[in-house]
């Protein structure tokens, strides 16, 4: 998109008060149909926020070669999970897309080329959360993918995502609520599938507490270099895709943005549901 089109869309969108940024631990798809302390916290959070013009979700479940945003006018719902109760596959969430703001996002980011996609829709990293926050599905939603071509062996991988995310800050002043949706601790190999309230592993608690400390102290560097937090990091973050959405939220924190936790806890012993609000 050229600068002229960027200006045209930008001028059509009046400025707003700077919107908050969220990181939400989305956990199991079962949370879509459950009522628990976690889902209650999402309901309260949705009611506490200024109404967004649109919502951008950075999804742990959309991994691509390059960075994309969904530009669909009517994004399809993606049931990207298997073996769950039939009830889950009947849940609907018919929010509109936001193609104009998605294209504005493409123009806003200069570090890399962000491209439009009409192939993806809303996966459960988005709608499993928004179903509780905004049950009327009346707010336009679009997703951003995670460029996974910068793989775990690339020394600048997490820094690359942090730098990219920092360019999204202008969207906050256009009424866009940006949500990183993943999990700080996410080890599927050690889940206790039979018990959602299973006692969390010691390593999971230890890593989650270290992250909490660094979040409260504003220590982004140690969160980017999370492997330096010790052996617990190996178990807590066996793969990066659920950790990276938190990095996007952090990169958007301004010096005067207060960070507060909207939920703390674990599910299945090895998934941290820690969620926070910035601003």
UniProtKB/TrEMBL annotation:
Keywords: Metal-binding, Oxidoreductase, Zinc
Stretches assigned to the Extradiol ring-cleavage dioxygenase class III enzyme subunit B domain: 51-271
Cofactor: Zn(2+)
Pfam families found in the cross-reference section: LigB
Top-level taxon in the UniProt lineage: Archaea
SUPFAM superfamilies tied to this protein: LigB-like
Residues forming coiled coils: none
A GO molecular-function annotation: oxidoreductase activity, acting on single donors with incorporation of molecular oxygen, incorporation of two atoms of oxygen
NCBIfam families: PRK10628.1
Entries under PANTHER family matching the protein: 4,5-DOPA DIOXYGENASE EXTRADIOL-LIKE PROTEIN (PTHR30096:SF0)
Similarity comment: Belongs to the DODA-type extradiol aromatic ring-opening dioxygenase family.
Protein name as it appears in the record: Extradiol ring-cleavage dioxygenase class III enzyme subunit B domain-containing protein
Organism whose genome encodes this protein: Methanomethylovorans hollandica (strain DSM 15978 / NBRC 107637 / DMS1)
Taxonomic lineage: Archaea, Methanobacteriati, Methanobacteriota, Stenosarchaea group, Methanomicrobia
């Amino acid at each position: 998109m050229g600068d002229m089109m960027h200006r045209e869309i930008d001028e059509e969108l009046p400025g707003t008060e700077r919107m908050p940024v969220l990181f939400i631990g989305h956990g199991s798809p079962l949370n879509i149909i459950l009522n628990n302390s976690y889902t209650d916290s999402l309901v309260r959070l949705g009611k506490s926020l200024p109404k967004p013009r649109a919502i951008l979700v950075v999804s742990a479940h959309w991994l691509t070669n390059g960075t994309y945003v969904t530009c669909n006018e009517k994004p399809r719902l993606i049931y990207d999970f298997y073996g769950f109760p039939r009830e889950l596959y009947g849940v609907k969430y018919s929010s509109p897309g936001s193609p104009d703001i998605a294209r504005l996002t493409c123009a806003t980011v200069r570090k890399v080329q962000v491209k439009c996609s009409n192939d993806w829709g809303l996966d459960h990293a988005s709608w499993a959360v928004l179903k509780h926050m905004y049950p009327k599905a009346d707010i336009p939603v679009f997703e951003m993918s995670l460029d996974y071509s910068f793989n775990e062996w690339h020394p600048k991988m997490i820094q690359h995502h942090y730098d990219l995310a920092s360019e999204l800050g202008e969207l906050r002043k256009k009424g866009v609520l940006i949500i990183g949706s993943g999990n700080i601790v996410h080890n599927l190999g050690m889940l206790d599938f039979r018990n959602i309230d299973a006692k969390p592993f010691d390593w999971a608690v230890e890593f989650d507490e270290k992250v909490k400390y660094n979040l409260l102290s504003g220590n982004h560097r140690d969160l980017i270099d999370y492997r330096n937090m010790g052996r617990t990091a190996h178990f807590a973050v066996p793969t990066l895709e659920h950790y990276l959405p938190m990095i996007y939220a952090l990169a958007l924190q301004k010096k005067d943005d207060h960070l507060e936790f909207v939920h703390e806890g674990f599910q299945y012993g090895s998934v941290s549901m820690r969620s926070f609000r910035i601003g």
